[in-house]
Amino acid sequence: MPRLIHPLAGVVALLTIATFWLSTVISELFLSRDIVIAVKITIPWGFLLLVPALAATGGSGVFLSQGQRTGLLGTKLRRMPFIAARYPNPYSVGPVPRRESPGRPV
Fold first, then answer.
1. What is the number of alpha carbons within 13 Å of residue 85 lying toward its C-beta?
2. What span, in angstroms and rounded, lies between the C-alpha atoms of 91 and 106?
3. Which residues lie below 8 Å from residue 72, measured CB to CB, with a gap of 6+?
4. What are the φ/ψ torsions at residue 68 (nearest 5 degrees)?
5. Is 104 helix (H, G, I), strand (E, B) or coil?
């Protein structure tokens, strides 16, 4: 079963990230400000799919390694915790700019 879960979860995670990226680029370049805001609000809901897919990919990968710690697989297993810890929480990037409301200065 892990031999099926690992590539399937990896593809789901990759397609989810690609969807985030493409929807952001297309909305920023070609669509209105309201659509850009809608895309930015919708993307965090995609984390409900992305996080379990990444966890399943990682967990099944560790299971499939069967404790092997040498060669290319060992290198990858030693490197992955540093890669995972490198990226901050997406909500801690910085303050959200306030929108101007009519008649009230910011």
1. 5
2. 22
3. none
4. -70, 130
5. strand
Q: How confident is the model at residue 87 (pLDDT cuts 50, 70, 90)?
A: low
In the numeric block, which tokens belong to residue 48? 């409900």
Q: Distance of CA 2 to CAs 27, 53, 60, Å?
A: 37, 13, 5
Distance CA 61, CA 32 (A): 41
End-to-end CA distance of the chain: 56
CA distances from 47 to 19, 52, 67 (A): 12, 8, 29
CB 27 within 8 A of CB 35: yes
The candidate with the shortest Cα–Cα distance to 65, out of 22, 12, 6, is 6
- The enclosing H or E element of 63 equals helix 33-65
Say what the pTM is.
0.66
